[in-house]
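Backbone-to-sequence.
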């Protein structure tokens, strides 16, 4: 933290002495420094609003009343100097000092007044006391998963319901599932506020979000950018200074400068539509949204959890999100890569699968009558080992890779044969994927095979949430499509 930032925080918390106030006043002559003061003041006022939203106006007025008391502390000294001075020169000097101190505190007081007035007027209508009380009394979201999570409010348990208000994650990862189907994963430290079932605010930190069709219009505000989701997945990162990055993984989002969302606050010309592979950045009070390089490293811990993958160990690797990281466009010689394909697909007809029951499989019996029923809502993933080059079928030099992956919901089907993979590409495959029609899947058992060679192995755990793979690939690409049961959330009515 810089000395000026410390002075800003001290001023906002408890006030400054005359000497420090004079230094701060000089430093605030630059516009960018004044913007930093405004951004810091907004974070302070946000915390106060979240703790006692009903009394924001009273708090602001109380703050204004305190400011004159700080300046009047100088007056007794000035008066004593005036009384003990016997010359007009000393009297003039004392008067000049008093005027200077008064001007200093007047500038800071007016700055604070403007910031608090802006904060008060910016409180949306939906956050009025009655509506806020109604929002906090109903279940809006729940903690669906957490890993090494430390909360500012103390211990929280997976499954805890959240009715609204401020959520502060100090460390770790936590996923919040909203009642409308939206999924938000926070990476600590993060300060996140739930304003309503379809409106939230990220004050600071990193999150990833997936919004299904039931939650289109889900909105996340930040100090610099407001994001309205149009049915997609994206990442948000907000720094301590309020600078905000938006990175779109799938679908489309609508962005606008903070305070200018689609709720009638700005014209369409000031909104931007972002597609998959787009990334933008903006600073508080800047009003500009600039395109930046699409980069997803900061979201690599949260995005798998948002997508339903709670853990991947061994040489299992969840690929980065985005249009360039899809089947057919991404190869890896050393890992079993995991592609998130489709979510929220309700089957209009039954689907034959190769495996559906827990157990160890080394020889896949593909003619078993196992099917996923019509009307089931599912999501799909593709697990792939696609080594560089090709090798002979019975070669002992084929790459062998092992890994384990755990999903948030039960696996109800595995497809590992070329024909069934191809037949389900259109329904369950990634919309931007480039799937091959040549041999793929786990190579089938053949009578002429050398049984002394170690075979591919698949283990589905008893709870059907964890899949273990031991694969070696040669002349074909090893692929398995994993179908997970997904309960379709009901839209809020």
């Amino acid at each position: 933290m810089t000395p000026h930032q410390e002075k800003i925080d001290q001023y906002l918390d408890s006030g400054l002495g005359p000497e420090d106030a004079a230094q701060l006043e000089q430093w605030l002559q630059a516009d960018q420094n004044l913007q930093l003061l405004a951004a810091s003041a907004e974070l302070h006022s946000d915390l106060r609003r979240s703790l006692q939203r009903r009394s924001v106006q009273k708090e602001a007025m109380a703050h204004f009343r305190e400011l004159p008391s700080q300046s009047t502390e100088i007056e007794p000294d000035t008066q004593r100097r005036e009384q003990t001075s016997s010359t007009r020169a000393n009297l003039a000097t004392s008067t000049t000092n008093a005027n200077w101190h008064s001007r200093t505190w007047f500038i800071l007081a007016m700055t604070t007044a403007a910031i608090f007035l802006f904060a008060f007027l910016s409180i949306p209508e939906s956050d009025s006391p009655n509506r806020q009380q109604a929002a906090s009394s109903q279940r809006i979201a729940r903690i669906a998963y957490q890993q090494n999570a430390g909360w500012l409010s103390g211990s929280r348990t997976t499954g805890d319901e959240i009715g609204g208000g401020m959520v502060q994650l100090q460390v770790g990862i936590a996923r919040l599932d909203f009642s409308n189907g939206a999924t938000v994963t926070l990476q600590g430290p993060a300060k996140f506020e739930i304003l309503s079932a379809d409106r939230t605010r990220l004050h600071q930190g990193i999150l990833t979000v997936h919004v299904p069709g039931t939650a289109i219009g889900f909105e996340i505000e930040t100090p610099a950018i407001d994001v309205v989701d149009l049915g997609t997945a994206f990442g948000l990162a907000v720094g301590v200074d309020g600078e905000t990055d938006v990175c779109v993984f799938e679908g489309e989002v609508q962005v606008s400068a903070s305070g200018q969302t689609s709720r009638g606050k700005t014209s369409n010309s000031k909104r931007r539509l972002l597609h998959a592979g787009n990334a933008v950045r903006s600073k508080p009070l800047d009003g500009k949204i600039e395109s930046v390089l699409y980069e997803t490293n900061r979201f690599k811990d949260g995005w798998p959890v948002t997508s339903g993958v709670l853990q991947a160990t061994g040489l299992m690797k969840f690929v980065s999100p985005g249009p360039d990281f899809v089947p057919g466009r991404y190869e890896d010689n050393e890992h079993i890569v995991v592609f998130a394909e489709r979510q929220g697909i309700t089957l209009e007809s039954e689907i034959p699968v190769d495996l559906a029951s827990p157990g160890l499989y080394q020889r896949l019996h593909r003619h078993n009558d196992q099917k996923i029923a019509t009307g089931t809502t599912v999501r799909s993933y593709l697990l792939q080992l696609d080594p560089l080059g090709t090798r002979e079928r019975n070669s002992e030099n084929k790459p062998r890779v092992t890994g384990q992956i755990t999903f948030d919901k039960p696996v109800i089907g595995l497809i590992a044969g070329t024909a069934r993979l191809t037949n389900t590409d259109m329904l369950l495959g990634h919309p931007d994927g480039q799937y091959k029609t040549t041999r793929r899947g786990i190579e089938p058992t053949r009578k002429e095979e050398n049984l002394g060679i170690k075979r591919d192995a698949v283990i589905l755990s008893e709870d059907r949430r964890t899949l273990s793979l031991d694969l070696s690939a040669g002349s074909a690409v090893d692929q398995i499509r994993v179908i997970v049961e997904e309960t379709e959330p009901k839209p809020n009515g």
